[in-house]
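Subject: sequence -> structure tokens, single chain

Hey, anyone have a minute? Need the predicted structure for the following. Not urgent.
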Amino acid sequence: MKIDDRSDLNGVSPSGAKGAAGVEGAARQEAGRKADRTGSDRAELSGLAGKISRAAGQEADERVSNVERLRLEVANGVYQPNPSDISRGIVEDAIASAAAAGGSRQK
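Reply:
Had a minute. Here:
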């Protein structure tokens, strides 16, 4: 059994290295230096992680408002779903599930 110790920072590429690994390595080294100076644990998100987090938050806000709008339409008896959109969604979901399960082979 092989154990991959990812906490070993000796193999981190220098900060001038190209690509995501170099950027990530430099961030780890800098975070390590900061932790040594302050004596407390700390975690920082990269710029990309922050953007992803903000986008997910915006999607969640949009989803909440959409669900609330639909809830009010149903409560007021004015919700009229489109049968064509529903059937299309069911078929697309079934195709995606089959492809993900490896069932996309033709007979």
